[in-house]
């Protein structure tokens, strides 16, 4: 797994609530059997004026100039600022893959959908929950200050604004640990393999129908 | 002493260890696999030279990309074909059972699990698909996961999870005739919102749930994720046991008796404590239809498309009205349609098809409907429907009768809406572009969608039940 320690990056504002994973990466791109290459199709239906297909060269596609990521001001952004319930809908990990492939490493929102939130951490991305008032302030600051950046520090669970304001955020300690160290979670779990095997023996003996072979 | 909820019991019986940081290592009894969210997980195993921990705990089926007609021609889209072939080769390599396209048991993963007895009460069940919550209808703990977690379960038979909070949604009384499980869950989502269940596992209880069929319960649990909760569940009762009995992979003989004894304990204790309880009066629920681009944007059939007067929701409402090409205050009954889709993991089981057929019988598809299609949830559902003559009812009315798969619920195969087309759909998501770029989805029950097919616009289907 990829590490995340800290980041100083440009903020792009996506001023919508309930952004679903179908919007983040439309279904036709889910046909890929790879984990990479989704960045050009991130927010495809909002970003381009034509219909996109997997494998398509996006360099000459007509852009929707009203879409925020097509504004030159936000080119190279690595922090996405958005509203409530970001990432709702489907469990597709292609959504964090696409965001990460595009260049986003941090997402700031009022709230996230559970599965999406969990998926981010598996891919070296840090989703941060801030209260609605703080999110609103950051939207305002992003609008007022071209080139608005934030510094995010995972170790200290702190965001630093250009004016010197420190914003702290909460995070589950296990997720923080894995992300800081870029840990292979499967390897972590397998370090308990004796415990798992013992549990399993007892569990399958007690509930013997669970051993039914499906052929 | 406070009692335990069903969720507490399912959780505790699968807890391998508690970690210091508040998470638990949870044992997973069954993993269901489909072609879209698994290739990268198999690849991860290969790269790290890891095998499956317990291969028999996994069962695979292709469903998302599968064509629903002309199957003798195979999968024509080469990108879809590669994904389906990759599932076949990955599962063959690891010795995992795959119900491929030619298998009569093939169907939508969340339909075939319960149907085959692959998913059973008391199990922990995961799948790389958010609608895994469906299986909670059997008194199981079932939730959707991402691809990294699919790989994690394959390699370790476990997941590191933080326990969700407990929510009870209690539905008192009985639903009116013609009002279905779909209307109920749309009404619930309409009230609590698409993030109302975030961080919770939801148990559905009360008289209306107790008297609901297993198919109805699966519809309710299926859309739990649309209320933000990863898992929805319903306590085991005689309806559950009767449903499970005699299926292909359910136990028999003394093992059956032992299982039933255990399953019968899978209810919340009388004094169970929930973090949140929400109560609905079943009799007050009317047939529901979505008008917008989120499953919480719903109205009763005799209601109207809202205006954007609520300032907290104004922007969302305006975005949705624009995308849906609807004017505020439009009566729901004035909305007319281009296509009708009856299918998906929400509503493609035999009972759903019977409900729709009852409305369609002896009628014709309205002239403004360019395509009305029924996509059964599985091979066995299709065969059962045909043995009851339901296919003839649909075909005679002008519907298309297709092969099983996810189809136009998410339009990964050829079944999709064209830009601007409006569809009455029994599926679960009305997001922008979900059924095809620029397509407009209105979620509703199978009976309501059938009524749209024959009348061309939204009508209160309860009138079909008056005689």
What's the layout of helices and strands?
The complex is a heterodimer of chains A (215) and B (467).
Chain A: E1 6-14, H1 21-24, H2 44-47, E2 79-82, H3 94-102, E3 106-109, H4 114-121, E4 126-129, H5 132-144, E5 149-153, E6 158-160, E7 166-168, H6 173-181, H7 185-190, H8 193-206
Chain B: H1 6-12, E1 15-18, E2 23-27, E3 30-33, H2 39-47, E4 58-60, H3 78-94, E5 97-98, H4 109-116, E6 124-127, E7 141-144, H5 147-156, E8 158-162, E9 165-172, H6 181-192, E10 200-205, H7 207-210, H8 214-222, E11 231-233, H9 238-244, H10 253-263, E12 276-281, E13 288-290, E14 298-300, H11 314-324, E15 339-342, H12 350-360, E16 371-374, H13 379-387, H14 390-397, E17 400-401, E18 422-425, E19 440-443, H15 446-455
Parallel strand pairs in B: 3-4, 3-6, 4-5, 6-7, 9-10, 9-12, 10-11, 15-16, 15-18, 16-17, 18-19
Antiparallel strand pairs in B: 1-2, 2-8, 13-14
Helix pairs in contact in B: 2-5, 6-8, 12-14, 12-15
Describe the structure.
The complex is a heterodimer of chains A (215) and B (467). Chain A is of the alpha/beta class and 215 residues long. Chain A contains eight helices and seven strands; from the N terminus they run βααβαβαβαβββααα. Chain A has one domain: Aconitase, domain 4. The longest helix of chain A is centred in the C-terminal third of the chain and has 14 residues. Chain B is of the alpha/beta class and 467 residues long. In chain B, strands 5-4-3-6-7 form a five-stranded parallel sheet. Chain B has a five-stranded parallel sheet with strand order 17-16-15-18-19. A four-stranded parallel sheet of chain B has the order 11-10-9-12. The mean pLDDT of chain B is 97. Chains A and B meet through helix 4, helix 6, helix 7 and helix 8 of A and strand 2, helix 2, helix 3, helix 5 and strand 8 of B.
């Amino acid at each position: 797994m990829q590490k995340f320690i800290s980041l100083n990056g440009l903020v792009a504002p996506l001023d919508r609530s309930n952004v679903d994973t179908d919007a983040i990466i439309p279904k036709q791109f889910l046909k890929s059997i790879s984990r990479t290459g989704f960045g050009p199709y991130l927010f495809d239906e909002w970003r381009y004026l034509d219909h996109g297909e997997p494998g398509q060269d996006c360099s000459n596609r007509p852009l929707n100039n009203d879409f925020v990521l097509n504004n030159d001001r936000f080119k190279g952004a690595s922090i996405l600022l958005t509203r409530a319930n970001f990432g709702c809908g489907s469990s597709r990990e292609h959504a964090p893959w696409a965001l990460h492939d595009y260049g986003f490493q941090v997402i700031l929102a009022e709230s996230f959908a559970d599965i999406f939130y969990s998926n981010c951490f598996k891919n070296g991305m840090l989703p941060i929950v801030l209260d609605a008032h703080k999110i609103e302030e950051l939207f305002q600051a992003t609008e007022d200050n071209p080139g608005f950046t934030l510094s995010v520090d995972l170790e200290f669970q702190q965001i630093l604004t250009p004016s010197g304001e420190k914003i702290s955020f909460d995070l589950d300690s296990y997720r923080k640990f894995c992300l800081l160290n870029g840990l292979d979670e499967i390897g972590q779990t397998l370090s308990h393999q004796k415990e798992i095997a013992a549990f399993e023996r007892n569990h399958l003996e007690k509930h013997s129908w669970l051993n039914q072979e499906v052929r | 002493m406070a009692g335990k909820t069903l969720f507490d019991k399912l959780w505790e019986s699968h807890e391998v260890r508690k970690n210091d940081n508040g998470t638990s290592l949870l044992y997973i009894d069954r993993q269901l696999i489909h072609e879209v969210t698994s290739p990268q997980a198999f690849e991860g195993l290969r790269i790290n030279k890891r095998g499956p921990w317990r291969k028999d705990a996994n069962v695979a089926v292709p469903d998302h990309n599968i064509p629903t007609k002309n199957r003798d021609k195979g999968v024509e889209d080469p990108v879809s074909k590669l994904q389906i072939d990759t599932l076949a080769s990955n599962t063959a390599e690891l010795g995992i059972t795959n119900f491929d396209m030619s298998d009569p048991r093939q169907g939508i993963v969340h339909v075939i699990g319960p149907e085959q007895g692959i998913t059973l009460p008391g199990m922990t069940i995961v799948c790389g698909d958010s609608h895994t919550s469906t299986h909670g209808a059997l008194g199981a703990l079932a939730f959707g996961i991402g691809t990294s977690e699919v790989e994690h379960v394959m390699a370790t038979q476990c997941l590191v999870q933080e326990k969700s909070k407990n929510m009870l949604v209690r539905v008192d009384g009985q639903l009116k005739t013609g009002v279905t499980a779909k209307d109920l869950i749309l009404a619930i989502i309409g009230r609590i919102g698409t993030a109302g269940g975030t961080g919770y596992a939801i148990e559905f209880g009360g008289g209306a749930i107790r008297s609901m069929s297993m198919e109805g319960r699966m519809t309710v649990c299926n859309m739990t994720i649309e209320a933000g909760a990863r898992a929805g569940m319903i306590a085991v009762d005689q309806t559950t046991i009767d449903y499970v009995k005699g299926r292909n992979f359910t136990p028999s003989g003394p093992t059956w008796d032992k299982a039933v004894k255990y399953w019968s304990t899978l209810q919340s204790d009388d004094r169970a404590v929930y973090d949140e309880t929400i109560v609905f009066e079943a009799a007050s629920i009317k047939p529901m239809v979505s008008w917008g681009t989120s499953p919480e944007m719903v109205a009763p059939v005799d209601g109207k498309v809202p205006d954007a007067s609520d300032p907290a929701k104004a922007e969302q409402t305006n975005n949705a009205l624009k995308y849906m090409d609807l004017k505020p205050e439009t009566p729901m009954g004035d909305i007319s349609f281009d296509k009708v889709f009856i299918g998906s993991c929400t509503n493609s089981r035999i009972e759903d098809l019977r409900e729709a057929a009852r409305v369609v019988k002896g009628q014709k598809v309205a002239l403004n409907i360019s395509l009305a299609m029924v996509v059964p949830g599985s091979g066995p559902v299709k065969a059962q429907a045909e043995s009851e003559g339901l296919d003839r009812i649909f075909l005679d009315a002008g519907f298309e009768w297709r092969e099983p798969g996810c189809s136009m619920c998410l339009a990964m195969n050829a079944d999709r809406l064209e830009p601007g087309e409006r569809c009455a759909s029994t599926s679960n998501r009305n997001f922008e572009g979900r059924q095809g770029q620029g397509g407009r989805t209105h979620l509703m029950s199978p009976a309501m969608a059938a009524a749209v097919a024959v009348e061309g616009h939204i009508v209160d289907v309860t009138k079909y039940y008056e005689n």
